Amino acid sequence: MINYVKAKIKSFVNDERGALTLLEWIILAGVIILGGSLTYMWFNGNLTGILDTIKNKLMSSVGL
User: What keywords would UniProt list here (predicted)?
Assistant: First the structure.
């Protein structure tokens, strides 16, 4: 089992596709964390306040 894991890690490090999948995992984790925090804020009612603030900033910068 340990040798299997070592071989997997070795092939993962040496394989360029492995590096790409690592990057994809990092991106996926970032998306999940971002989505989770946005959902958390939405359930707590903070997200609407943040969105209103962003909308007001955009409106004032455009001049509406």
Answer: Membrane, Plasmid, Transmembrane, Transmembrane helix
Q: For the chain, what percentages of helix, strand and coil (3-state, to nearest 5) are there? A: 90, 0, 10
Structurally, the chain folds into a number of domains equal to 1
Looking up tokens 């690592």 gives 22
Contact 41, 47 (CB under 8 A): yes
CA 12 centroid distance within chain: 22
Range of the domain at 15: 1-62
The per-residue pLDDT for range 6-20, each reduced to its tens digit, is 777 776 666 666 566
Give the integer Cα–Cα distance in Å for 31 and 58: 25
Report the percentage of the chain scoring pLDDT > 70.
78
